[in-house]
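Consider the tokenized backbone below.
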């Protein structure tokens, strides 16, 4: 069976689902660290803290809004399959709820070094998840869909736009948290590190893979 002009193989499906789950696992580690959520979940986590919207539901709402932004950016280049990002947001929200629940079996970070290591692990897992699922060109999460759309419209590299976009998301989460809670809320040092280094980590994972296999993947394929 063909999907997006390519054969929909088991490997392609596995990489897609595995990549998505790795991202939610990274999100869960970021929340567990206590140093702030990962950039991808900073706005949904802020919604959870401010309006008590369950993290999975908040994630879905956030992703639905991003699909609308992507539609505005791409206009006639927005493909019908991209509307399915809303439904992928449901899957991602469910994965996020499961991953956060699994973190209940891990003891809380009892010192800053352990918390920082959790944040670093979060960054790596999210970057690795992006590397697995984005090139499958099945249905991107709206977060990556918007990032890809900006990269295409501006003709800039995906990893660089990923950094810019994550910084904007974190600033928005910070504004929401401070306006309604009077504190940083979902944003912490781990969030800032994620915004600065997830895109860079994707870049180096991509470079390592290209050097090791001789094959480069297309991170802007939609």
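A designed sequence for it:
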């Amino acid at each position: 069976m063909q999907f997006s002009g390519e054969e929909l193989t088991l490997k392609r499906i596995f990489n897609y689902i595995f990549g998505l789950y790795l991202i939610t696992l990274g999100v869960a580690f970021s929340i567990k660290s206590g140093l702030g959520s990962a950039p991808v979940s900073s706005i949904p986590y802020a919604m959870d803290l401010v309006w008590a919207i369950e993290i999975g539901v908040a994630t879905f709402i956030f992703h639905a809004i991003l699909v609308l932004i992507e539609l505005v950016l791409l206009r006639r280049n927005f493909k019908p399959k991209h509307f399915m990002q809303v439904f992928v947001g449901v899957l991602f929200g469910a994965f996020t709820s499961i991953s956060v629940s699994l973190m209940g079996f891990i003891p809380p970070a009892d010192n800053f070094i352990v918390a920082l290591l959790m944040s670093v692990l979060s960054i790596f897992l999210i970057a690795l998840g992006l590397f697995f699922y984005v090139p499958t060109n099945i249905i991107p999460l709206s977060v990556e869909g918007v990032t890809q759309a900006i990269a295409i419209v501006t003709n800039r590299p995906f990893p660089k736009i990923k950094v810019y976009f994550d910084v904007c998301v974190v600033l928005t989460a910070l504004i929401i948290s401070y306006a309604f809670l009077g504190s940083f809320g979902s944003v912490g040092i781990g969030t800032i590190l994620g915004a600065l280094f997830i895109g860079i980590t994707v870049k180096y994972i991509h470079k390592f893979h290209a050097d090791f296999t001789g094959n480069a993947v297309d991170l802007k394929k939609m």
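Strands lie at 2-3, 6-7.
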